[in-house]
Amino acid sequence: MxxxxxxxxxxxxxIDQIKSIAExxxxxxxxxxxxxxxxxxxxxTTNSLLAKAGSIxxxxxxxxxxxxxxxxxxxxxxxxxMALNAxxxxxxxxxxxxAGIETTGIHTKSKIKKIDSEKLxxxxxxxxxxxxxxxxxxxxxxxxxxxxxxxxxTSAVALAASLGCRCEIYTDVEGIYGxxxxxxxxxxxxxxxxxxxxxxxxxxxxxxxxxxxxxLGKKYGVPIYVGKTxxxxxxxxxxxxxxxxEEKVITGLGITDDIILVTLKSLKNTPExxxxxFEALGDAGVNIDMISQTLVENGGLxxxxxxxxxxxxxxxxxxxxxxRELGPIEIEEHIHFTKISLVGIGxxxxxxxxxxxxxxxxxxxxxxxxxxxxxISISYAIDxxxxxxxxxxxAKEFNL
Amino acid sequence: MxxxxxxxxxxxxxIDQIKSIAExxxxxxxxxxxxxxxxxxxxxTTNSLLAKAGSIxxxxxxxxxxxxxxxxxxxxxxxxxMALNAxxxxxxxxxxxxAGIETTGIHTKSKIKKIDSEKLxxxxxxxxxxxxxxxxxxxxxxxxxxxxxxxxxTSAVALAASLGCRCEIYTDVEGIYGxxxxxxxxxxxxxxxxxxxxxxxxxxxxxxxxxxxxxLGKKYGVPIYVGKTxxxxxxxxxxxxxxxxEEKVITGLGITDDIILVTLKSLKNTPExxxxxFEALGDAGVNIDMISQTLVENGGLxxxxxxxxxxxxxxxxxxxxxxRELGPIEIEEHIHFTKISLVGIGxxxxxxxxxxxxxxxxxxxxxxxxxxxxxISISYAIDxxxxxxxxxxxAKEFNL
Lengths: 400, 400
Prior knowledge:
The structure is a homodimer. By secondary structure, chain A is α/β, with parallel strands linked by helices. Chain A has 13 helices and 18 strands. Chain A has an 8-stranded mixed sheet with strand order 3-6-2-1-9-11-12-10, with helices on both faces. The first copy, chain A, has a 6-stranded antiparallel sheet with strand order 14-15-13-16-18-17. In chain A, α7 (195-203) runs antiparallel to α8. The first copy, chain A, is globular. The model of chain A has no long low-confidence stretch (mean pLDDT 91). The first copy, chain A, has 2 domains: 2-172, 3-Layer(aba) Sandwich (Carbamate kinase); 253-398, VC0802-like. At the A-B interface, α1, α2, α3 and α4 of A face α1, α2, α3 and α4 of B.
């Protein structure tokens, strides 16, 4: 059986961990598996490289930053391959470039354009374990590029797509839980989840897999498994949606802390007005989420949206621009708020989720400040003082 | 003026040092210099990478070791280029491969086969400072290779040869001294030295520049300068020999500590015997030096040679093999001995150096156990207790 496995930075943080993974790979190979292994930089290496760049300049040249950041994975692939060779197993390390990973787009946020897997196929047919540097590729100019946050997940899924095989993501958690177990200790682990749900969960702060990697898996139909490194316990499978899944209305609950909820009140309700507002927010670089609008008595409009606390300065810059153009506006702002989202493809066929949630909120006396919905999710902005109470009540109601 | 400059690991050991070098390069560029800068890994990076490999296996795969060791220079070129960009200067970093450095031979000890400098020429003509990773290249298989001990010197001289310009080697010493100043504090700095003398000095433990780099400089007529990083004091020029140099009989004195001096006594004097001995030593991997032979009364032969203390086990292995083949041999062995060498192209035209040395040894009561000569050097093996006395007496006599 052919497999791509990815081991994250916390799984290869020390030499001893690298040796343990090597031993485990040898056992797997002896069971007849054909293995391509994608690794991240050891532990906090990438952060320490970033700190070095930061002590030179606050705005490092991005081509050079990519070269610097790509160094960590080169170290890991060399060490893991040495460990395999030392165990008497034929293995070879490949940089992103050598593995045929061609990228495009801007430095530090490149995208994979194409994978030329001929070399990989050859090495596999020679019986080698192939160790590939995650997070990196080579662009049209022949320069090393990196794939941005969570890029090694994307490398692994893309390689699995080009090799036509399953992809296993090994990390320091045992799989994906219906609710973050740090908040709701009784949370159950999800055995199977659809790509769509996982994408919503990634977006909603589950933080285990990068959404781009899940999207790529969906696009090429790559079965993905997420589980704990060197653990026998079963993890979570990310697969095409199936009928069993639709039985369950809600698969998971996502928590996003530290959001800002903004309401612009009594706006003049014209398309020009609204477009000017979103243009100013976009120009300032504010990533807006949870947009809703309500008509008010005098024919005007209340417009609400959320963004992250970290974008407060950008937000205020944008609001100044808007007031310069449209005149003074009454603005309501809640910072440090929390967003709670329920995700499930079951919502597409089962109605009534919103009704059940409103009933719980009424019973518990929880006030929500904003609600938005997508086809497979529903999200509420709440005061953080109600966070635990909301999570527990919803998790119990939907059996997460 | 076009220039290749090389900065060693101790010159780029910290972020502050890298920033200082960047400022200095900007000043040089403003004076109209076209600069190609070769850098080593920061400080002790290479040693710490070697230690990581060592904690995985005592015998790491050499291809993987090369990948691991080449990481340090990639870090330095990215950081130095960022520092230059942050100062508003156009600069670009190139790995050995991107700089067109093609290598051949075994991993960890590769040799430069060819440099394709088209890319370098283009960047220089665009007014960029080009920062190149030393110590590395790419082989026929497309794998990263390293050039062995002192490899960055070799990278720099080879680039200068291919660009047809001067090469400046910056390090933590002010140039090359006639005698190691730690042993003989009155030692004078050498202003000009010939390639040949420098090669003898490198071999003899001066330890400032790798002999391969000097050899390459001689082959392609590259003028080389060796001096202290960011210092105004003049260093040493390595150039073609000239008449001025020949005026001075001796240019430098080299000291090699911790050698073993071996004498095999009363051997049967046949070519087969002698060749068997050298074959066994070669097979065991002993690097022999200072070979001499003397006939003894009974028609037999005494054969003497030296090697390094670190090769003691290999030596004993070889001697066992020799005794198995030739029968028991009377062996005299001195360990921890010292070799003192006088180097000077003046010796070619001036005779009488050996005579002057013997006179000094007699006057000072210094015993030498072995003497060997080359065209431009003469070396003596002495007891280490006489080391300082010998160095001071010879340095005074020859005004070093």
